[in-house]
Amino acid sequence: MTRVAVLYGGISAEREVSLASGRQVIAALREAGFDVTAIEVGADLRAVLAALDPAPDAVFNALHGRFGEDGAIQGVLDWLGIPYTHSGVRASSLAMDKAAAKAVFAAAGLPVARGRVVEMAEMAEMADADPMPRPYVIKPLNEGSSVGVSIIRDGDNRRADVAKNWRFGPTAMVEEYVPGRELTVGVMGDRPLAVTEVAPRQGFYDYEAKYAEGGSHHVVPARVHPDTTARALDMALAAHRALGCRGATRADFRYDDTAGEPGRLVLLEVNTQPGLTPTSLLPEQAAHLGISFPRLCAWMVEHAACRA
Questions:
Q1: Catalytic residue numbers?
Q2: Can you list the domains of the chain with their CATH numbers?
Q3: In this model, does residue 32 exceed pLDDT 80?
Q4: pLDDT tens digits, 75-117
Q5: Are 197 and 183 in contact (CB under 8 A)?
């Protein structure tokens, strides 16, 4: 019987999401017939190393955010020589760094939102100057799940407060706000799954909308022009390959159809550790294609690899 250690929890702002993902994965892998060891990760790396001795056949990485999907734990597992799910050090670190990922996507010819990195201390001191025309989005460079994201619109006076209260490092990514709809595409290996439209119940697709029960409404397949569906599937796979990802990922898009369809499709980011909670999008797309959650998790373990 294959021995799998599931890492979940972690030390990032997405700890609660990871705990929810981990609990789902643990149950699914046991249902699929694996010998599962659950390892709730905290701040003590020595405890994680001790829990991985003796080494399992594979690690299922259910961590999100810093340390979990930024290449850090991947480097530790490479050093230990233990195969693990999802992407390796380079792809994970690139995808987590929004500026680096944007550069990779642009070099691959993929459409990205106009934006730049700004110093938040300078923004806090600006009287009335905006870093780019409104509306625009301010987002952390190295967080996921829409943690810390703010949209600054015309007439909004929150810009200085957002900058002064910033707690996600000295810099941020400022991007044009792309109107329209939120689309997402999951990828398994070399297979893009489906296009989902994500409609938050209110506001935009923030942390609450992603993970609170009833926080958003998912339409799969998305009701968009067939050409848009084909482009979104192709772009998700191209972005996955451009970063050098492995296993499962999820690409997020904005789709501006305000002038009619087919509209403008803009790639926002690639998630190398897609959520696996009851409200998550990747399992929903897999189920739409007849892949059960235990089978999805088993596929991830079967495609685990040691990158060292």
A1: 14, 145, 211, 250, 252, 269, 271, 275
A2: 3-86 (3.40.50.20), 95-112+179-292 (3.30.470.20), 115-176 (3.30.1490.20)
A3: yes
A4: 999 999 999 999 999 999 999 999 999 999 999 999 999 999 9
A5: yes
